[in-house]
Amino acid sequence: MASVVDGNGGSGGLVVTELGHIKELVTQLEVHLGGSSSDLCKHLASQISSITERSISLLITTSSLHGARKRSADAIPLSDASDAPFVKATKKRKTMGKKRREVTMSSAGGGADHPADDGHSWRKYGQKEILGAKHRRAYYRCTHRHSQGCAATKQVQRTDEDPTFFEVVYLGDHTCVQRAAAAAAVAAAGQAAADAQAHEHNDSPGTRSLLQSLSSSLTVKTEGPAVEPEQQLLLGWDAPAPAPFCFSSTPVTASGCLVPEHSPFSAPSTSDNWGVSPATSDSNRVVSFPPFEVALYRSSSCGDDVQFGFEEVMSALDRPDGFLDDLDIDVPSFFE
DNA sequence: CATATTTGACCGCT
DNA sequence: AGCGGTCAAATATG
Questions:
Q1: Is the CB of A148 less than 7 A from some atom of nucleic acid strand B?
Q2: Is the CB of A199 under 7 A from strand B?
Q3: Cys staple from A308: which of A146, A312, A321, A326, with CB 3.0 to 4.6 Å?
Q4: φ, ψ dihedrals at A156, nearest 5°
């Protein structure tokens, strides 16, 4: 399932969070069981199922990290998300202790040779054949490494199982101010959506790939090649919220990431909890986000930004250092 | 010309 | 010694 791994041992915390969600959902389900809305019950049930799967997967992934942390070649994980060893210290900078986050995502629209844009600008600095892997791994660093000393890097590698998916490992936090890119992405998405709306049967490849790119950039790959929209929720997003990102001016429904047109927020019942960023210059385009993780974990990395690229949100899902460490559990022993 | 990518060499770790 | 990660010169791109 959701292959998002926090290398600082936050998985236990995530699992706890997920289990909390499950409990909450079960409670709701109980309330509605005798009631009128069988649809609601179905919805809740599928939420529970989906979150449970995520939790299980988290546990599996984590235990494979714990148990087979030596070399990647012999540690073929159940999910394809953890085949890389921990980043090792090399020449210049110690990378040990960097935050590590793994995401599996589909290729940018139409099977490009790179995953969808994540809102940051990256500069490739190397690639390597990796033992035991079918595809080479590419290494990227933040474009602003020199100008702003941003130490964020990422590694991108096609998965063995499905070459249209990429495993992306993010290392370190962005310390750069990267608002332009995110704003551009949002604006572009809004523009593309506006275009699509204007010409109803717009099939222009440019627009399509832009939208595809956007939507796939917002998808955390879960278990298999075929991903249910229900399962594409990012870890920890609150239950009834259908999508991690909502662009109020984008009427396109793609992969459950974008919302129906007239409702600014598609979350039916909890939308009033959502934080709303007021800040795109165009008042028509508003980025909204569920309050929970973003409010709680939105950390330091990019300052006071009001918009969230994919990376920002993934970052927001991370706990600040030390936070919830007390809740960290020894997953393998927890399982036994 | 500035900036990005490619690619073999290099380095540190196991 | 082998591997993965990075450097940096050469090359490509705009």
A1: no
A2: no
A3: A312
A4: -125, 130
Q: Is the pLDDT of residue A283 over 80?
A: no
* Closest protein residue to B7 (Cα–C1'): A126
Confidence (pTM) = 0.44
Question: Rounded to whole angstroms, how far apart are CA atoms A57 and A101?
Answer: 15
The pLDDT, as a whole number, for residue A142 is 93
Q: Which nucleotides of C are covered by protein (CB under 7 A)?
A: 2-8
Structure-token pair, residue A65: 């990290």
pLDDT at site A24: 57
Residue nearest to nucleotide B4 (CA to C1'): A123
Q: pLDDT for A99-155, tens place per residue?
A: 888 888 877 555 667 787 778 899 999 999 999 999 999 999 999 988 888 889 999
Nucleotide with C1' nearest the A113 CA: B5
Can you tell me which residue has its alpha carbon closest to the C1' of nucleotide C8? A125
Q: How far does chain A reach from its first CA to its final CA, in angstroms?
A: 21
Distances (CA, A) of A252 to A68, A81, A187, A257, A261: 43, 30, 15, 9, 8
**Percentage of residues in chain A with pLDDT exceeding 70?**
22
Interatomic distance A97 CA / B2 C1' (Å): 34
Strand C atom within 7 Å of A163 CB: no
Judge whether A205 and A195 are in contact, CB under 8 Å: no
Q: Which of A14-28, A65-79, A151-165, A180-194 is predicted least confidently?
A: A65-79
The reply to whether the CB atom of residue A88 sits less than 7 A from any atom in nucleic acid chain B is: yes
User: B7 C1' – A139 CA distance, angstroms?
Assistant: 13
DSSP line for A163-213: TTEEEEEEES---S--HHHHHHHHHHHHHHHHHHHHSTT---HHHHHHHHH
Cβ pair A275, A294 in contact under 8 A? yes
**A25 token code pair:** 């959902």
**Is the CB of A149 less than 7 A from some atom of nucleic acid strand C?**
no
